[in-house]
Amino acid sequence: MPVLEVRNLHKVYRSDGVEVHALRGIDLQVESGEFVAVMGPSGCGKSTLLHLLAGLDLPTEGEVFVQGQPVHQLSESQRARLRRRIIGFVFQSFNLIPNLTVADNVDMPALLAGRAADEVARERDRLLQRLGLAEKRDAFPAHLSGGEQQRVAIARALINHPTVLLADEPTGNLDTRSGMEVLNLLRQFHQEGQTIVLVTHDPKVASFARRVVFMRDGRFVSEMALPEPGDASRILAELLAIA
Amino acid sequence: MLRYALLGLLAEQPRHGYDLKKAFEGMLGGTWPVNIGQIYSTLARLERDGLVVSQSVPQELLPDRKVYSLTEHGRRVLTQWLETPLFPPARLKVDFFLKLLLARRSGMVDVCALIWKQRQAFLQTMANLTSLLSHSEKDEELRLLAEGLLYHLEADLKWLDRCEEAFCAPEHPPSGNGHVPGNP
């Protein structure tokens, strides 16, 4: 069973009597352990799609299943519980809580899920260590660089071992170098089995995924698999030929 | 190209033929193998033109080995080559553009499918590059090569987006490549 499945998803926004078709019939299946990028220009509906996957919004038509659970039929509070337990979300603008320390930001979703504080603290310290943030544990978000803030957001998204990690332009507010760091971390977590779906307009970001789905105007128009790149010297030989 | 590479390696220090082969291949991560014959014939031409000189160094139990070094003239030629910028600065994607033009004129293949296929090829190359970057933390020269190529690819992909805008209807379904999930 796919961990994430979407059937004939439509989303229509109405404002001032004008209808905007953000999604026009999306079908998608994501298997456990996949790293999928949904790529398309701004306005193609990719962020809307991600919000529907996370249960942050409801579809006008169609179905969303996360680990077999029909997200489109759940109540607000059931969806909130789903987001805490089985979905991790990373936003473009980090969305950390400014008056909480790094540690408290990361702990929050785990404590809300009712986990024991000491176990959460151990796990959080391990994650922060892993993400190169051990020394920032007691710092406040405002004192961190963008790259650091996004790494805290990743720790927060992963603390409850989500079935799927969703990321919306996770490097959109970062410089090239810290963007690459964040993507490298996502790639490492994927290699350890984490299922990831990210949306982006940036082909460089999409190239970290193993499957890329191209989106235009509310629809999927094409998709491709990106095989794991081979050894460095073969890659280099290829590159020098195109240089 | 090889001739300037040899001049550059000799500017670093005098070397014999096999040493040059190893240094050249090592510099490029083993991606451009040269045979030793090529090295010696290039060295012979450089010596004939007065860009390098050789000196025989006796070896125990083995025949003398020729060690080459750069002449003043060789140093000037190398400097001039190094200082001359390349023009045009980046190779235009002439081959692909030609395909695009001929596809439109002949009507033999779908222009949009052509663009999609090229985009996928670029994206795969991009994935190879970013993978290389994440595995070459400590090799600054290699990182810079990969990053440089990455910038080129980003520009190429943007240009493909423009080609798509210009030649394909907004909802044109790309035909003949990949499968579209969930659609018949």
Keywords, please?
heterodimer, A: 243 residues, alpha/beta, Rossmann fold, six-stranded mixed β-sheet, four-stranded antiparallel β-sheet, 8 helices, 10 strands, 36% helix, globular, B: 184 residues, mainly alpha, Arc Repressor Mutant, subunit A, three-stranded antiparallel β-sheet, 3 strands, 8% strand, elongated, disordered C terminus
- Give the largest chain-chain interface (CB within 8 Å): A-B, 42 and 43 residues
Rounded to an integer in angstroms, the radius of gyration calculated over CA atoms of chain A is: 18 Å
Q: Roughly what percent helix of chain A?
A: 25-40%
Shape call of chain B: elongated
Q: Number of folding domains of chain B?
A: 2
What's the CATH H-level superfamily name of chain A?
P-loop containing nucleotide triphosphate hydrolases
**Count of β-strands of chain A:** 10
What structural class results from the helix and strand content of chain B? mainly alpha
CATH topology of the largest domain in chain B: Arc Repressor Mutant, subunit A
Task: Give an overview of the whole structure.
- The complex is a heterodimer of chains A (243) and B (184).
- Chain A has 243 residues and is an alpha/beta fold.
- Chain A has a single domain (4-242), classed as Rossmann fold, CATH 3.40.50.
- Chain A is built from 8 helices and 10 strands.
- In chain A, the strands form 2 sheets. Chain A has a 6-stranded mixed beta sheet with strand order 6-7-8-3-9-10, sandwiched between helices. Chain A has a 4-stranded antiparallel beta sheet with strand order 2-1-4-5, covered by helices on one side.
- The mean pLDDT of chain A is 93.
- Chain B is mostly helical and 184 residues long.
- Chain B folds into 2 domains: 2-83, Winged helix-like DNA-binding domain superfamily/Winged helix DNA-binding domain (Arc Repressor Mutant, subunit A); 94-167.
- Chain B contains 7 helices and 3 strands, in the order αβααββαααα.
- Chain B has helices at 2-12, 17-27, 36-48, 72-83, 94-106, 111-134, 140-167; strands spanning 15-16, 52-57, 65-70.
- A 3-stranded antiparallel beta sheet of chain B has the order 1-3-2.
- In chain B, helix 1 packs across helix 4 (72-83), helix 2 packs across helix 3 (36-48) and helix 5 (94-106) packs antiparallel against helix 6.
- Residues 175-184 of chain B have low confidence and may be disordered.
- At the A-B interface, strand 2, helix 6, helix 7, strand 9 and strand 10 of A face helix 6 and helix 7 of B.
